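Sequence in, structure out.
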Amino acid sequence: MLFVLSAGPAAAMPQGAPRELELTRPVRPWEFLSAVGTRAGLLENESGRMEAWVYPLKILRDFHLRFDVGGRVLPAETLARTVIARPESSTIVYSGDTFTVRETFFVPVGEPGAIIILEVETEEPLEVEAAFQRDFQLEWPAAIGGTYLSWDPALHAFYFGEEQRKFAALAGSPTGEAPRAEYETNYSASHESAFRLGATLKGKETKLIVIAGSMEGRAEAEKTYRRLAGDANGLLEESAKYYRDYLARTVNVELPDADLQKAYDWSRVSMVQGMVTNPFLGTGLVAGYRTSGESQRPGFAWYFGRDSEWTSLALDAAGDFASTRTALDFLSKFQREDGKIPHEISQGASFVPWFKDFPYGFASADATPLYIIAMSDYARAGGDTAFAKEKWQSVWKAYEFLKSTYDERGLPKNLGVGHGWVEGGPLLPVKTELYQSGAGAEALRALANLARLAGHEEESKTLAQEFEKQRALVNQSFWLPEKKRYAFALDRDGKPVDEPSVLATVPMWFGVLDEEKAVQMIEQLADFDQQTDWGMRIIPSRSAKFGGGGYHYGSVWPLFTGWASVSEYRNHRAFPAYANLRANALLALDGSLGHVTEVLSGDYYQPLSTSSPHQIWSAAMVVSPLLRGMFGLEVDAAKKTLTFAHVPADWTSFHVGNVRVGDAVLNLRYRKTLTEITLEVTRTGGECTIDFRPALSPRASVLGAELNGQRVEYRAAAHQGDQHVETRFAVPQGASTLRIHVKNDFGVSYASTLPPLGATSRGLRVISETWSGERDRLELEFTGAAGKGYEMAVWNPGQIESVEGAQLVKKDGEAAKIQIQFPATTSDTYPHRKVVFHLAGKRNAGTGEKW
């Protein structure tokens, strides 16, 4: 049985047309806002308070505007009314009684600087003043030492300098005047500097503010400053085109769920915005963005091993193989001599003995197996066997380090080696997490694949055998049969730590855990104490160790939510899978617009106060669950094969475009009626084979399949919650159509939403689903908020004879609803309820023909 959540239809658009992205809403002054490129970033909030970086250098903080109008000086933040987010820029609209000012922040993609465009419209004379505090220092933990500020009247800009004259910056305007510089005397001081932009007497006028930085002295900073000031509009359009082109050349989709559509597009943008060039370190993926305030730590805007590796899986799925290669190549440069992969590399690392005197460089154990996994995924999906061969010694060293950490049982340790997922809190200490042991096992399978691609056939066979042994060991060591779930970890004595944790979904994602056992645990993870309306808690709220604000013992990470979604899809539990996918998608459209935050409270719908609002791997956990989970898209470039599966039950049409399989490019159009599934495929380029595996309910019958009018073989693969009709066919050049004839399919769906900010969960959950042997009875176990009612859509309601525990309404052809009401209760805020569907007749069993 395939269950999904759904939303209303998205507006149709021509296939392959570029999609303009824009999100707008009333200002929330506390929310994060940004404009970033590969070499610089403006990090701010929606009130307009901003800090500027040219990596690895912080230039200024607390930048803000004041409006001098009608004899009054008005702080801009008190007039901030509307915020507009686009991939290339962020805009705040300020409105006064007689004027508006649109402040647009943007960073040209490859420039070491930024531009702020001010569009002024006024009925009376108005002058804008820009004020800031100098904060001219390198990113933590490095430092320049003494710095200074002076006004350059020729450039109409403040110059930022330091004694060695290596680092330099400028901030000003072509119309800048009336500077006020910071000062400090024996009797008074001010840390604020400011300049005015010249008065606008009446009507419309555009003003510019330009910020530029250099690691090569003042002349280079001036050159950048003049370039930015001289072509602001051209650079803005160039940046907009960069993102349009990026969306067009990666995997693009047209979905009936409008929210998921927007979130997927924005998440692709968010991921590529994590690509940062540091002139002293190189180019790689940073973890995320947040204002640093009076410190020099901008969120997680430095390089992380495991963040890059999890994000690379989403980049591969979206077809951005170049970014994955860049990120993995960057990590390999800093691999330790014994093979361990770095955990984090500050952008200031080249100025201090980072890997020697600081404890963060190699703090994690999981970055090493994930490195091998990410390398294999890139080589398989991207077809880059040359890179696999080039990095063979690197991945083999990583394997040797991993193997050196095995305990006497043969499981990779965390204790004494480095943390797994959990870095601190009441869940520690442990000897090894299931998360770590599962990743370690999958690394063996990944290395076997890399060995084969690199031409090491004997090593590949040996590693494949080692993986099977390790997979059995992991399942045996962590499974708790009496609890029907996996332990979170093994303690110092090697005994299971019985804390049900979402971290178990990582080995589920990779197929390391047994499907039957995984399904039993997923049913526990889907309950209200683990799954909130905004994502997955790390441990259930009923645990004695739970704390809703606990960074590693109670909070909700979109990362966890994405892990759970992919693993639930892969274990044929599509209802909680889509609930989790949609939770992450909705986060991208709320909070910091277009971004998915790092971590939220486990009690209330709000980010933790320390959360990084634009977290790169959180965005990846919209992309991976959609492409790898729901659609089941898996590319093997060497075998020239695409797997396409897990089609949602109530989606009647969608499109997936620009899927690259080696040198072939595929565009896929899916359509569905009560009697037929149609896959229209357009192929350009090289040869390719598709394994198409749409999911149907267990009661559905398959009557036949044909490609371009010619009969093709198929088989039905049964699972506990659904069945997949599997066809494999070589894709002809040009346009082709596959038709699968079906009857008696059936499905249920629910449209989830986020609660109001600060509220607790109130959404519906599906805990379990049980079919009778004759497939004429379906029992669903739900949990929902006490006293609340829910409405669910039904696909093919003509199959229903009666319903127990809910009311069937609006029965009309293909569309119908059921209404479920949970009674008010004082003893249970989230009671359970069973709904039973009695369906017409028996399933017409026929499994079709095997390959």
